[in-house]
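Batch job 17 of 40 flagged for manual review because the log was empty.
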Amino acid sequence: MIDRDGILALIPHQGAMCLWDEVAGWDARSIRLRARSHRDPGNPLRSHDRLRAIHLCEYGAQAMAVHGGLRAREAGGAAQPGLLVALRGVQLHVARIDDLPDALECEAEVLVEAEASQQYAFRIRHAGALLAEGRAAVMLGAPLPTSTPSPL
């Protein structure tokens, strides 16, 4: 098992923006993670004191990042930066997640990968019930966006 500190060493998401607490298992094709961050009132994705199910897409994307970091570390390197470019087939089976008492559990698996991109499928459950599922695509090596004002 890999704890939160181990996850923080693998991904660019730091502090409260790192949503996963532990890696329950992984191999070259898939990863399983757990989180309780959905219960945290300081979760940066919350608005109006709620955390909506749409934010499970970010949980899925971060699962991809953790998996990429683990795979890169095992190969003796570091993961390339990635940029989420598409979500497909996303199905949300609840409206919100901040009121769920137990840990969220995610399974993510590589579907397609190339030198500059990857596509994963993800499924997120709570107490065995499916909350969300979908696919996410990432461009690798893409510069991460910066917050610069656009000229008017």
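Reviewer: the log was empty due to a logging misconfiguration, but the result itself is present. The chain has a mean pLDDT of 93. Unflagging and moving on to job 18.
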